[in-house]
Amino acid sequence: MITKEEIMEIVENYDLDNLSIATVCSHSSLQIFYGARQEGFRTIGICVKEPPRFYDAFPLAKPDEFIVVDSYKEIPNIVDELRAKNAIIIPHGSFVEYMGGKAFAELGVPTFGNRAVLEWESDREMEREWLEGAGIEMPRLVKPQDIDGPVMVKYHGAKGGRGFFIAKNYEEFQEHVDPNEKFTIQEFIVGTRYYLHFFYSPLREDGYKLSNGILEMLSMDRRVESNADEIFRLGSPKELQEADIIPSYVVTGNVPLVARESLLPKIFNLGERVVEQSLELFGGMIGPFCLETVVTDKLEIKVFEISARIVAGTNIYLSGSPYSDLIEPDLSTGKRIAQEIKIASSMGQLDKILS
């Protein structure tokens, strides 16, 4: 992985009065570009083959310029062009997944956040070590031969739910598992899914204070998954099984959520523990992150995954959420990222938020 020292040598040659914000044209790019523009940054869209036409329909979120590559694997070839434009990369799930974690870790362009988190986030065993080390309650792990009730089988990396499946016994697991993929098996927790969108700032001091910096909770959502969210309209589980119709969990969209207010102390406690543990393990998880949780009927919150970057569920809130509006009106996660870069630049502390 490229070192912070190497990145800061690159930043030393940047014109800090003319920084650009760049990301791949996918996932959460509309709000990233829109938020950057709101804060006065020039924007760069990295796209494959040709600029997507849908940006023409959204002029406030259309990048100021596009850089076209033939494939995501060719992004390292445009490093010099990005540096010449004083670019800061904003990573998101599609960016990292399509380019590849190892290639992204070596990308020689200043990037918002701490790249060290990639290793901890993408490997589910390390992720569990991180979260359990923070005192977070997670679904228990199950060995294939010990499956005696519903379990969720997940593959490693950011795949938007693709390939995930539920198995109720060892035979079902064997029937559906891809032996070529690294997987984790978790007990299936019955409850309501809440995806909690946090932001950790090592720079600001006013707010929900941590050992260093503050924690913000900007919004939350629930994912719409195909075909799991609609499949039972076709019949009972037994009828679906007889028809050989299998639930799938590919994320196709997101819907807004607000938690009952009495849960907020628990929610902030979860975010605080995860950030403090990240500071101890790898120097901190900078900027946006999402705790993916299930809230049970006993009001227990169990965390089954973490995404240590902006997540697509924040796209619902381009003009703010019921939570972020209580920090600043019309505050999106994309705008909040741009603000943090702007603050760091003005304070001469870009080294605290870039890697």
TrEMBL record:
HAMAP family: IMP_biosynth_PurP
A GO biological process held by the record: 'de novo' IMP biosynthetic process
Protein name: 5-formaminoimidazole-4-carboxamide-1-(beta)-D-ribofuranosyl 5'-monophosphate synthetase
Keyword Hydrolase: no
Function: Catalyzes the ATP- and formate-dependent formylation of 5-aminoimidazole-4-carboxamide-1-beta-d-ribofuranosyl 5'-monophosphate (AICAR) to 5-formaminoimidazole-4-carboxamide-1-beta-d-ribofuranosyl 5'-monophosphate (FAICAR) in the absence of folates.
Organism, scientific name: Methanolobus vulcani
Entry's family note: Belongs to the phosphohexose mutase family.
Enzyme class: ligase
UniProt-listed PROSITE patterns: ATP_GRASP
Enzyme Commission designation: 6.3.4.23
Entry-linked Pfam families: DUF1246, DUF1297
UniProt keyword terms in alphabetical order: ATP-binding, Ligase, Magnesium, Manganese, Metal-binding, Nucleotide-binding, Purine biosynthesis
Single GO MF descriptor: ligase activity, forming carbon-nitrogen bonds
Pathway(s) this gene product operates in, as recorded in its UniProt entry: Purine metabolism; IMP biosynthesis via de novo pathway; 5-formamido-1-(5-phospho-D-ribosyl)imidazole-4-carboxamide from 5-amino-1-(5-phospho-D-ribosyl)imidazole-4-carboxamide (formate route): step 1/1
Regions crossing the membrane: none
Residues holding 5-amino-1-(5-phospho-beta-D-ribosyl)imidazole-4-carboxamide: 27, 94, 254
Residue stretches making up the ATP-grasp domain: 101-332
Coiled-coil spans in chain: none
Chain positions recorded as ATP binding sites: 225
Catalytic activity of the protein: 5-amino-1-(5-phospho-beta-D-ribosyl)imidazole-4-carboxamide + formate + ATP = 5-formamido-1-(5-phospho-D-ribosyl)imidazole-4-carboxamide + ADP + phosphate
Gene3D superfamilies: 3.40.50.20, ATP-grasp fold, A domain, ATP-grasp fold, B domain
Obligatory cofactor(s): Mg(2+); Mn(2+)
